[in-house]
Amino acid sequence: MDVEIKTLSSKEIYRNRWMTLKEDRIQRADGSEGIYSVIEKSDFVVIIPVENNEIYLVEQYRYPLGRKTKELPQGSWECSPDATPEEVAAGELKEETGLKAGKMEYVGYQKLAQGYSAQGYHIYLATQLEFIGQELDEEEYGLTVEKIKISEFCQLIHDGEISDATSVTAFLLAMTKKMIVESDLD
Q1: What is the dihedral of CA 13, 26, 81, 41, to 10 degrees?
Q2: What's the sign of the alpha-carbon dihedral 39, 40, 43, 44?
Q3: Residue 115 falls within a domain, yes or no?
Q4: What is the average per-residue pLDDT within 142-164?
Q5: What percent of the chain has a predicted confidence (pLDDT) above 70?
């Protein structure tokens, strides 16, 4: 495998429990040098909870945007790095929506923003749902849950009301794998 960019040095600029920011001095294949910033974050999960042609969404305040957004339940467990993605998915589903899935199917894995991070996310389709009670983290204060028709979810994507790329691509991947089919959209 040819390496098009060589790392000459790497310096940690910032770290907290969620992420590390590095600044790398690099040399490109043509010999020119530059700086590349890299964000290191652990992988996360996104869950598509579906029941009777309906999908569960969460709405929460997103500080960088300065507003609430609707998206699929998602998250990571920085404090439990040895947890399997399926354990994290089941835990995040319960924390954010209060739901327990009788069936959790693996949809796939995607990268979030490979231009500045290697972080990715595991996608799960949750079905046979039972409400057992929410357990929100303090960072999730004000998070609400809504169940809507899958067709309405598609319309919200179309209208730009759901702009979270993770939610959109997770749903699209499940559809392309025929885990969510057109009859579910009625």
Answers
A1: 70
A2: negative
A3: yes
A4: 95
A5: 96
